């Protein structure tokens, strides 16, 4: 299935070049897809990802603070809801089945890659405006959407629940909603030709750096093998 999450994402994705391939075709992802990923690596990743999503929810909440329109506020609020009430249920349920309770997840010590990525994004939002924050948040949302769409919903155990979460209609709808909002946010602030804005290179830089941090996050997961 090929997906489209808007022209801003398409442009940033193209600008990230090889880093985007390294992220969305990482060995961790291919191991999820063919089922060869060691369970220990998956659980190591999943515990870290729970903590990651806590901090990403905080960063999307900052999006509410930095919004300039009600539509931007609604999308940020909806994304926080999707993260804390839906996506994280995957982590809680999968870990519970392995004997890892939610308190353990919530208090898990962060790996350096996790800390670097989440705080990089938060700092982008604290230092900059709404677009700086969105450029740093975008690889997270769209990358998993693209991976899910590529892998599709036709998978067997052991990783079908994970794949279905990102391939499924609910997550894909979040990506489309964020993509539409992002295009409008960029047009509002940078006009119809955003790539010619002096700000574009900086936004691209934020997007590419966040994409590289996604690559490191997968590699951190593999260390748990
Ligand atoms: C590290 C990471 N990046 C993205 C996603 C998708 N929300 C995630 N769960 N974890």
UniProtKB/TrEMBL annotation:
<comment type="similarity">
    <text>Belongs to the TenA family.</text>
</comment>
<dbReference type="Pfam" id="PF03070">
    <property type="entry name" value="TENA_THI-4"/>
</dbReference>
<feature type="domain" description="Thiaminase-2/PQQC">
    <location>
        <begin position="16"/>
        <end position="223"/>
    </location>
</feature>
<dbReference type="GO" id="GO:0009229">
    <property type="term" value="P:thiamine diphosphate biosynthetic process"/>
</dbReference>
<dbReference type="GO" id="GO:0009228">
    <property type="term" value="P:thiamine biosynthetic process"/>
</dbReference>
<dbReference type="InterPro" id="IPR050967">
    <property type="entry name" value="Thiamine_Salvage_TenA"/>
</dbReference>
<comment type="function">
    <text>Catalyzes an amino-pyrimidine hydrolysis reaction at the C5' of the pyrimidine moiety of thiamine compounds, a reaction that is part of a thiamine salvage pathway.</text>
</comment>
<dbReference type="InterPro" id="IPR004305">
    <property type="entry name" value="Thiaminase-2/PQQC"/>
</dbReference>
<dbReference type="GO" id="GO:0005829">
    <property type="term" value="C:cytosol"/>
</dbReference>
<protein>
    <recommendedName>
        <fullName>Aminopyrimidine aminohydrolase</fullName>
        <ecNumber>3.5.99.2</ecNumber>
    </recommendedName>
</protein>
<comment type="pathway">
    <text>Cofactor biosynthesis; thiamine diphosphate biosynthesis.</text>
</comment>
<dbReference type="InterPro" id="IPR016084">
    <property type="entry name" value="Haem_Oase-like_multi-hlx"/>
</dbReference>
<keyword id="KW-0784">Thiamine biosynthesis</keyword>
<keyword id="KW-0378">Hydrolase</keyword>
<dbReference type="InterPro" id="IPR027574">
    <property type="entry name" value="Thiaminase_II"/>
</dbReference>
<dbReference type="GO" id="GO:0050334">
    <property type="term" value="F:thiaminase activity"/>
</dbReference>
